[in-house]
């Protein structure tokens, strides 16, 4: 069986997930789902990068120890992915014990082979940043963050002999044209390699940075974060001995954006070569999402959060937009206007309309049952079938080349051809003439087949829409169970199956109203005032002792579907029972920060003592825990 392994970068835990992280992860998800559709055995990896200066500093600013801080932000990533329908097999953290073991194993191996040496480094050091700068990184000779001139400093460190592998790397890139793709990034790496490559400093003295993996051969040092992070790609396969490693390493493709081209295009292949393994098969490099032509920025308030968009426009509209709008490899601009435009035209108008027209006609003319092909295909039918089959072929050709937009364009050509087919054949006219019932059957059957094929072809991009469409066509398969060979074939609907007209797949969105709606307060349920409770004095409110706590441990309460038993750190450890088991798994909630009413009288639920109450909000089936905007020290009072 063919195999496929795709990874995303492991994201730093110093910032919350945004649209850029979502894009790379959705791209990897599409690749994974596509290869499953094609019958491959796959492995899909994502995770978080948790050591190093950046994280230690962010934790310090939040007044937390680095591990609790990393637990919290890592949890935000881990919880986001299922909500974007990401089909990863493992979520790796660089603080996972198996990863620490593999990093130390690799360091020792490369050290034993003589490719790591100890030496004194003299360079320009910024005391504020506690790190060395190269001349090139300085702005007017000053540290860009502190606007101060760095001082000359000497430091003894460990170095990886990266320069030794320079010639090999150039030859490897030249001999394998799609090792780094698209070509512009391959050229960028080759251009960089025209200059002599320096060795890579791979350690940090513990007195300067303790938040890292200790070097196995010298505990006065921790590992430089990139040497640690890159190794995640083999840890996840149980390197060196695991069967997964032998199965999946030879077919690995890493997916990243251009910001981390150098570590992936240069450090990683040379490290892996020094370990004695062949490098990855492909490095897939995409461009940047820009907002108002610039970088996303927290201070300018231009950070785009995936779940905000998903809650406004739906998950599949969001996934479709990202994949259709960006040409892989180039930058793209993000705007809500552009997203709404695509939603209304491609999804509501083209796909949504085709599906609802087809089902409405099936309901009207054939009592909602799939009719047979009753007449020989004519030219128009043949053209429709040919377009559908062409879209299927394009999918198999373009997705492996990362041309997601092209694959979608050809699926949409098929959707548009089907809409035109309806207009030209005018089934409503045939329906008036009993002598032409056979032709009407063939027409509707053709349309149902196109819709079914489209559902299969969009499954890697829009898995839940695919499932809804198939379900309404009477096919009860999960999108991950679909297989191209058996499911992307013309004509396999079963005659007589009942289809379900249902509601429109993608209601149109009016952006103006949407924006105004956002400003309005949510409307209370019909007839009810927004706030019904009696007014209280501040003194009464003050009697509530509410604290921020970090969940240390969680488990299900035996014989209860609803209850989780939690241990929450609020400066002291508290056992509380929370009615959240139907929406939150124990693994999901460990590391999260919650708001706890700490002075509630103890109570027993299903025989388990609860000393406090975790605050949550319920909106229909949506149960959300309240959590502080940024991590704070456990035990801080809420006021
Ligand atoms: N921790 C390192 C990666 C280590 S991999 C062994 C890191 N983390 S990061 O959190 O900064 O993530 C960078 C990645 O996030 C990019 O390579 C890309 O995948 C994604 N993006 C971040 N901003 C982005 C855009 N504005 N646009 C598109 N993707 C971007 O670097």
Describe the 3D structure.
By secondary structure, the chain is an alpha/beta fold. The chain is built from 22 helices and 24 strands. The strands form 7 sheets. The chain has a 6-stranded parallel sheet, with helices on both faces. The protein has a 5-stranded antiparallel sheet with strand order 18-17-16-19-22. A hairpin with a 2-residue loop joins β20 and β21. α11 packs across α12 and α13 packs antiparallel against α17. The longest helix has 31 residues. The radius of gyration is 28 Å and the shape is globular. About 2% of the residues have low confidence. 5'-O-[(L-methionyl)-sulphamoyl]adenosine binds next to β1, α1, α7 and β12. The site of 5'-O-[(L-methionyl)-sulphamoyl]adenosine has 19 residues, from β1, α1, α7 and β12.
Shape: globular
Number of helices, counting only DSSP H or I runs of 4 residues or more? 22
Beta strand count: 24
Oligomer: single chain
Overall radius of gyration: 28 Å
The amount of beta strand, in percent, is 15-25%
Bound ions, cofactors and other small molecules, one mention each? 5'-O-[(L-methionyl)-sulphamoyl]adenosine
**Alpha-carbon distance between the two ends:** 59 Å
- Low-pLDDT runs of 5+ residues are 519-532
Backbone structural class = alpha/beta
Arithmetic mean of pLDDT: 93
């Amino acid at each position: 069986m063919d195999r496929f392994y795709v990874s995303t970068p492991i994201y730093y835990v110093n910032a919350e997930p945004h649209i850029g992280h979502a894009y790379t992860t959705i791209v990897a998800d599409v690749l994974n789902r596509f290869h499953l559709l094609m019958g491959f055995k796959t492995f899909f990896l994502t995770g978080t990068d948790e050591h190093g200066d950046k994280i230690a500093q962010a934790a310090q600013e939040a007044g937390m120890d680095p591990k609790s801080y990393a637990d919290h932000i890592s949890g935000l990533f881990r919880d986001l992915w299922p909500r974007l329908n990401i089909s990863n097999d493992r979520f790796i953290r660089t603080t996972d014990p198996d990863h620490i073991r593999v990093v130390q194993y690799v360091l020792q191996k490369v050290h034993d082979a003589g490719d790591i040496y100890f030496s004194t480094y003299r360079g320009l050091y910024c005391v504020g940043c506690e790190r060395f700068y190269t001349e090139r990184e300085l702005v007017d000779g000053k540290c860009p963050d502190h606007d101060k001139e760095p001082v000359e400093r000497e430091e003894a460190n460990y170095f990886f002999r990266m320069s030794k592998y320079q010639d090999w790397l150039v030859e490897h890139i030249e001999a394998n044209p799609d090792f780094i793709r698209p070509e512009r990034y391959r050229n960028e790496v080759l251009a960089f390699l025209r200059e002599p490559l320096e060795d890579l400093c791979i350690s940090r003295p513990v007195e300067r940075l303790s938040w890292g993996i200790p070097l196995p051969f010298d505990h006065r040092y921790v590992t430089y974060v990139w040497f640690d992070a890159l190794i995640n790609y083999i840890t996840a396969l149980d390197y060196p001995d695991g069967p997964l490693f032998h199965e999946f390493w030879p077919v690995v493709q890493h997916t990243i954006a251009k910001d981390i081209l150098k570590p992936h295009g240069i450090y990683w292949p040379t490290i892996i070569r020094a370990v004695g393994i062949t490098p990855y098969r492909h490095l897939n490099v995409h461009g940047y999402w820009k907002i108002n032509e610039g970088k996303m920025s927290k201070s300018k308030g231009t950070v785009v959060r995936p779940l905000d968009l998903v809650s406004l426009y739906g998950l599949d509209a969001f996934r479709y937009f990202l994949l259709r709008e960006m040409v892989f490899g180039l930058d793209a601009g993000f705007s809500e206007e552009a997203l709404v435009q695509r939603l209304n035209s491609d999804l509501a108008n083209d796909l949504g309309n085709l599906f609802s027209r087809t089902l409405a006609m099936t309901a009207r003319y054939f009592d909602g049952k799939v009719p047979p092909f009753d007449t020989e295909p004519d030219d128009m039918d043949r053209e429709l079938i040919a377009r559908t089959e062409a879209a299927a072929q394009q999918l198999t050709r373009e997705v492996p080349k990362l041309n997601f937009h092209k694959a979608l364009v050809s699926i949409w050509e098929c959707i548009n051809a089907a809409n035109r087919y309806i207009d030209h054949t005018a089934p409503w006219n045939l329906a008036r003439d009993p002598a032409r019932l056979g032709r009407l059957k063939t027409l509707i059957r053709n349309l149902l087949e196109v819709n079914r094929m489209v559902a299969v072809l969009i499954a890697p991009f829009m898995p839940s829409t695919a499932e809804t469409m198939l379900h309404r066509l009477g096919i009860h398969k999960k999108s991950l169970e679909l297989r191209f060979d058996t499911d992307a074939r013309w004509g396999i609907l079963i005659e007589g199956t009942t289809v379900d007209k249902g509601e429109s797949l993608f209601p149109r969105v009016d952006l103006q109203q949407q924006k105004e709606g956002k400003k309005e307060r949510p409307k209370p349920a019909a007839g009810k005032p927004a706030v019904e409770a009696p007014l209280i004095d501040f003194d009464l409110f003050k009697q509530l002792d509410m604290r921020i706590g970090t969940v240390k441990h969680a488990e299900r309460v035996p014989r209860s579907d609803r209850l989780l038993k939690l241990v929450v750190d609020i400066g002291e450890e508290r056992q509380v029972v929370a009615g959240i088991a139907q929406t939150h798994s124990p693994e999901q909630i460990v590391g999260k920060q919650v708001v706890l009413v700490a002075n509630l009288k103890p109570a027993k639920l299903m025989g388990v003592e609860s000393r406090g109450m975790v605050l949550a909000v319920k909106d229909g089936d949506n149960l959300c825990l309240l959590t502080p905007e940024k991590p704070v020290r456990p035990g801080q009072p809420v006021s």
